Amino acid sequence: MNPATPEELFAFLDGLGIAHATVAHVPVHTVAESRDLKAGMPGGHSKNLFLKDKSGRLFLVVAEAEARIDLKRLHGPLGARGRLSFGSPELLFERLGVRPGSVTPFGLLNDRDGTVGVVLDAGLMAQDPVNFHPLHNGATTAVAPGDLIRFLEATGHPPRVMVLPEPVGDAEA
Quick check: 141 pLDDT over 80? Predict the structure, then answer.
């Protein structure tokens, strides 16, 4: 697969009439690394979990960056079969065309057969704008929450917006 480029992503957004603004920055790989950068960017920031269940079904969970998520209980609300685990870097690149540290809902542009189910955190979607990597971790692109949903629907990934389960004890993502 030849994954989409950021320029192709922006052209796709433009074709949908979706306003977007991108800020270049040093590459960041984790939520912790990006805290200082995010402080200067308005809106909601995310962490994106590429997960698979025991039967191999794939999910992208797009959550508010500081959300505490109980991965041990997440499979129930997602309708997953059995516990969830993180998808391998190879599977991530095969499906979303991105590498670890660059996971983004914009990568669903590369999942042309719609195999990845998408769940959006209700807390993140209550913020405006919402910010994500534009297929690489050296920039952040902001869009309106409703426009994110339009983008996902246009790529064949109608999302579910839901409140994600929080951990009861120590287990969290």
Answer: yes
